[in-house]
Specification:
- The structure is a single chain.
- The protein is of the alpha/beta class.
- The protein is built from 14 helices and 16 strands.
- It has helices spanning 39-57, 73-82, 86-103, 119-131, 206-218, 232-247, 279-285, 288-296, 308-326, 336-354, 359-375, 382-395, 408-422, 426-438, and strands spanning 4-7, 12-15, 23-28, 61-68, 111-114, 135-138, 141-144, 183-187, 202-204, 222-228, 253-259, 262-264, 267-268, 304-305, 441-446, 449-454.
- The strands form five sheets. The chain has a five-stranded parallel beta sheet, sandwiched between helices. Strands 6-7-8-9 form a four-stranded antiparallel beta sheet.
- Helix 8 packs across helix 9 (308-326) and helix 13 packs antiparallel against helix 14 (426-438).
- The radius of gyration is 26 Å and the shape is elongated.
Length: 458
């Protein structure tokens, strides 16, 4: 079965057919580095990390790029408040962001491209828009003229800003030709960073950074453009207008993919709203696997609230799979019934993922398999082991380290406990079990024998 993707541009689920066979060029809008990243960012980037993992697992050669917005109004304002240089602040929080991504095991980005490193590309793209009649000057700045681009609004199905749009990136310059015209190049202001260019002294607008970067990396057209749904307007609409206006080629991206927002008390989580939980705060109380599971238990296009109850549910779900895995007896020959059950579950699991990366549906198939397997009298074997390990390779949300890989001290304690139980010295055997627990090994006696597992993290 081929992979199908919901394309925001067409509002349809379509067969995934990259331009160049099995090679995929994918760009996802990265962070604006003016403060610590929050769990809303974690949701989006964890879900795109999974999508890239799955594409690669399916045989695609993916080049995955993110931009780092390190020149922006928000950075300048925050740096001024703290008495720092904007570049200094941006470098600090870029490092913060990259460390957060590593902590979440979001490790599939191939290229992080900084706006600072692409000033020449940005200037060249603005110059091309001027040459083609899409841009005009206002007091030393340059604006995109929306009256020259009739396709504006095709992605979001809207053309006007609303109250919820970022005020720092939708300006009300009275000299603009059209209300929705957006800035490409900002004229120099006192106390702000600037570059000396053929466009004049100044710095890039927010939208132009991304298209100049993708043009430099991928050319004017590529396969996948992703981001959170709140970027659809005006940011992604502006990107389409800029790149298609400058190149004369359409579409900018063959597939547009948008993640649902993380909400708190029904409202979008955002640094500007002050209602956010940083990734580092979340990781203080939760294993990264619990956060990954929480995000991946939802379809990427769905919005979600990350509450203590949601995290508890994710933690418990993880543990059910981990405990099932630790009950596997890989030394037993697999029964025909067990093997067939695993094959059916694997087929259902991958069928769900092929349908627009439906992680929620795939996990439902996994738990259905575990329930069926637990009804059987014989313990799971090698087919179950292989299936669970495949799931973990994709999701990176389960701790499958087998406690049977213990050291000599633990081996000795286990042998001693067995001898004591055989001799009927159960109180002493329980004391040995407590010693093993202090070493992080939980001993569970059941109908299929003794099972070991590592003490769970949060």
């Amino acid at each position: 079965m081929s992979i199908k993707v919901y394309n925001t541009l067409t509002r349809r689920t379509e067969d995934f057919i990259p331009t160049d066979g099995r090679s995929v060029r994918m760009f996802v809008c990265g962070p604006t580095v003016y403060g610590p990243s929050h769990v809303g960012h974690a949701k989006t980037y964890t879900q795109f990390d999974f999508i890239v993992r799955y594409l690669r697992r399916s045989g695609y050669a993916v080049t995955y790029a993110q931009n780092i917005t390190d020149i922006d109004d928000k950075i300048i304002r925050r740096a001024t408040e703290l008495g720092l240089e904007p570049r200094e602040l941006a470098v600090e929080y870029e490092a913060h962001y990259l460390a957060d991504m590593a902590a979440l095991h979001n490790n599939n980005v191939d290229v992080y491209a900084r706006a600072h490193d692409h000033i020449d590309d940005i200037v060249a793209q603005v110059q091309e828009l001027v040459r083609r009649g899409h841009a005009y000057p206002v007091d030393g700045s340059w604006y995109f003229d929306l009256s020259t681009f009739s396709a504006y609004g095709q992605l979001s199905r809207r053309t006007q800003a609303r109250e919820e749009d970022s005020v720092s990136r939708v300006d009300d310059m009275p000299q603009k030709r059209n209300a929705g015209d957006f800035v490409l190049w900002k004229a120099r202001k006192e106390g702000e960073p600037f570059w000396e260019t053929p466009l004049g002294q100044g710095r890039p607008g927010w939208h132009i950074e991304d298209t100049a970067i993708t043009d430099a990396l991928f050319g004017p057209q590529y396969d996948v453009h992703g981001g959170a749904t709140d970027l659809m307007f005006p940011h992604h609409e502006a990107e389409i207008a800029q790149m298609e206006g400058a190149s004369g080629k359409t579409p900018l991206a063959r597939y547009w993919m948008h993640t649902g927002l993380l909400r708190t008390a029904g409202k979008k989580m955002a640094k500007s709203a002050g209602n956010f939980l940083t990734i580092r705060e979340a990781l203080r109380d939760n294993d990264y696997r619990t956060l990954r599971y929480a995000f991946l238990s939802q379809h990427y296009r769905s919005s979600m609230e990350l509450t203590p109850a949601v995290l508890d549910s994710a933690r418990n779900a993880r543990r059910r799979i981990e405990n099932f895995y630790r009950a596997i007896d890989a030394s037993r020959p697999e029964s025909r019934r067990n093997a067939a059950l695993a094959d059916e579950a694997r087929t259902c699991f991958y069928t769900k993922l092929d349908d627009d990366f439906d992680t929620a549906g795939a996990l439902s198939a996994l738990f259905g398999y575990v329930r069926e397997q637990n009804r059987l009298t014989e313990p799971p074997g090698t087919a179950a082991q292989a299936f669970i390990e495949e799931v973990e390779e994709l999701f990176d949300a389960f701790e499958l380290d087998d406690a049977s890989a213990h050291n000599a001290e633990i081996d000795g304690l286990l042998e001693r406990r067995t001898q004591l139980r055989q001799a009927g010295k159960f109180a002493e055997a329980d004391a040995v079990r407590d010693t093993l627990a202090s070493l992080g090994v939980i001993v569970e006696d059941g109908p299929h024998g003794t099972r070991l597992r590592k003490r769970q993290q949060s």
